[in-house]
Amino acid sequence: MSQPHSDALVFFGATGDLAYKKIFPALQAMIKRGTLDVPVIGVAKAGWNLDQLKARAKDSLAQHGGLDAAAWEKLSSLLRYVDGDYSDPGTFVAVRKMLGSAEHPAHYLAIPPLLFEEVVEQLVKSGSAKGARIIVEKPFGHDLASAQELNRILLSAFPESSIFRIDHYLAKGPVHHMVSFRFSNSFLEPLWNRDYIESVQITMAEDFGVQGRGAFYDQTGAIRDVIQNHIFQVMCNLAMECPARRDSESMRDEKVKVLKAIPPIDPKNVIRGQFIGYLDEKGVAPNSKVETFAALELEVKSWRWDGVPFYIRAGKNLPVTCTEVMARLRKPPNTNMTEPDATQNYVRFRISPEMTIAMAVSVALPEGTGREEVELVACRHPQPGEMEAYERVLTDAMAGDATLFARQDYVEEAWRIVDPMLKAATPVYPYAPHTWGPDQVDPKVRPPCGWDDPRAEEPADFRVVAQTA
Description:
With 469 residues, this protein is an alpha/beta fold. It has 13 helices and 16 strands. Strand 4 (105-109), helix 5 and strand 5 (133-137) form a beta-alpha-beta unit.
């Protein structure tokens, strides 16, 4: 059932860092695209007035994406501001008054989760929750119990259909285009199962450290920061069945089925690492055991994927910044037509920093001197004017399209899978910056043909090429 379009956006945390770096640029982009034409009410406790908020927003646009004079004039006319404490009922009375005749506002909580309960309660008491939807940022808890408590708070005031849990990573074009690619190309589907795929590996690498966010990262770690959410979303897009319909609930049903088919991860199938120098970062505890790297193996016990191991690797201070999927196909049978040293075919998806789809094939060298592996590559770099992740999620949330948002059961299933390894006291091994993690990875968590280490660069534009692997 379609939902009404939001007729106002109430933006809690309007003076914060997320607003400055991501939200104001997204709002300007929405105006340029014609998808935002309702009041935007900023709420914060900063001692500011509306002019100061506008100055902050204008500076944000100048620093992040570029100021468009016409779009800024329109955004400036839509901006409102309420300054006040979230524990003060008067703040929410002022919000309700500023909403005026709006009947379906969207309340965006770009604030720490520990403030959610207080804000939700005040929205209900002030009458601002009626007919509204709520948009919340990750993290959705730090384990299964806290996620369930967070869902209890949200569901006490809003139906599940009106709760939009943002993880902007799912809105990145290559991530959700992966589903379309799978089901729109008939050559891939017959191969995309346990009969032909030997193993799947997903790497999410960053070539930088914690970048001054030591205090935050030391409460989080790699598993909570990117594996339980970002990488699981990629994995669901790879492993899901074709939805029965195109609506958001059918799509989200199939993703939840993937998670339900994954047993809790055995701690013995996990290696955690910490880059040398992490303990010197500001805000990090001197004896911290928080991982900046993790490699793990899991299985999807579904009809399509039973017996196919999935390997996940993510971390800071690795050799490149890149997110890539490698699905290795099984070797052909050993017959008199098969080269004894034949390489394995594979399908490779690069998600960032550019979008690449590649297939590795074995071809004969000249004059029968053997064979070599080459890639058929289609590569596309982002183009000017394409929708960025935050613009997409805010546009969809205002329109009531929940396809790219995590549902309650998805969030809780994801935590169920990782909870045992988070609670286990597994060792944290040191690794040198700009290496592929600790030495202990390969002996314990290693795909059958070894880890594929992504290259730093891909072809320059969208085209099909033959490239020596």
